[in-house]
């Protein structure tokens, strides 16, 4: 993202330099006042400051990445640009809830339940709701609601009964009842873990869906302000627009392009967060 932002800022700085030179020529010809020159210089210095700040941020990020990879601070070779990175379209259709079993926390909770089942002689059943997680929460809300309210006994099938000698039966039965209580507790923990996982996946799907819409709006805004900037420069060159209109158009163009880069970066971050929320992927 920083590389894209600095490209935008440098392009804007070049525009500001060009505008400042034109205004200085107009000042020398007596067409504008010194105020116009000062305003243009202030805008140019602002643009230069943004470039310097972005250069600093890039160097800091490169240093951090170098340390992370076990090397001395150095320039990082780029293999692509922000706009070249896209999210796969298939994630917009949602993901099966069963994929949550890839998550380490869900897997641990599932194995704890399997262990609790083994202690009570209960066979493993289908422990995940049959639904697809989407940005709206799932295709079958009724099924999901039922899954989170069903009795713990439905998470497995009771096996054979206690067939121990008579003298040990009471002690074994007590141990069995305690194991059942522990097992019900494990079911609740498993259910809670899956519920949290579903919420996290749904959150990221919502972000991806809405950021896609935001990106379309931001992209359209960039086209509009770029057209406005072009017209402002043409009008300024022909004396039909003043310097304030040009400075405003340049400022709007800079901000709109930076905002577009921010939204694109947020899209990619949401994709990474979804990948993590699913425990490592969606394919």
From TrEMBL:
Domain of life: Bacteria
Keyword field: Coiled coil, Lipoprotein
Matching Pfam families: OEP
InterPro entries (alphabetical): MdtP/NodT-like (IPR010131), OMP_efflux (IPR003423)
Gene Ontology molecular function terms on file: efflux transmembrane transporter activity
Coiled coil: 201-264
Keyword GTP-binding: no
Similarity comment: family membership: Belongs to the outer membrane factor (OMF) (TC 1.B.17) family.
Protein name: RND efflux system, outer membrane lipoprotein, NodT family
């Amino acid at each position: 993202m920083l590389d894209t932002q600095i490209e935008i800022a440098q392009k804007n700085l070049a525009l500001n330099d060009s505008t400042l030179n034109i205004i200085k020529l107009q000042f020398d010809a007596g067409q504008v006042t010194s105020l116009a020159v000062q305003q243009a210089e202030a805008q140019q210095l602002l643009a230069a400051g943004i470039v310097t700040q972005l250069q600093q941020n890039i160097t800091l990020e490169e240093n951090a990445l170098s340390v992370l990879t076990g090397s001395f601070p150095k320039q990082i070779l780029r293999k692509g640009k922000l706009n070249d990175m896209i999210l796969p379209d298939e994630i917009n259709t949602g993901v099966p809830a069963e994929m949550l079993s890839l998550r380490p926390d869900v897997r641990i909770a599932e194995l704890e339940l399997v262990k609790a089942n083994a202690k009570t002689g209960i066979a493993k059943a289908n422990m995940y709701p049959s639904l697809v997680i989407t940005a709206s929460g799932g295709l079958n809300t009724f099924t999901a609601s039922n899954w989170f309210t069903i009795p713990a006994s439905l998470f497995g099938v009771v096996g054979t009964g206690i067939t121990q000698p008579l003298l040990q039966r009471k002690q074994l039965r007590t141990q069995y009842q305690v194991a059942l209580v522990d097992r019900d507790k494990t079911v609740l923990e498993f259910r809670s873990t899956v519920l949290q996982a579903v919420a996290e996946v749904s959150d990221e799907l919502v972000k991806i869906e809405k950021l896609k819409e935001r990106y379309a709006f931001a992209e359209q805004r960039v086209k509009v302000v770029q057209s406005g900037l072009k017209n402002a420069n043409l009008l300024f060159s022909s004396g039909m627009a003043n310097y304030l209109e040009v400075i405003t158009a340049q400022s709007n163009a800079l901000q709109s392009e930076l905002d577009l880069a921010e939204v694109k970066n947020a899209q990619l971050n949401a994709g990474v967060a979804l990948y993590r929320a699913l425990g490592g992927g969606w394919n």
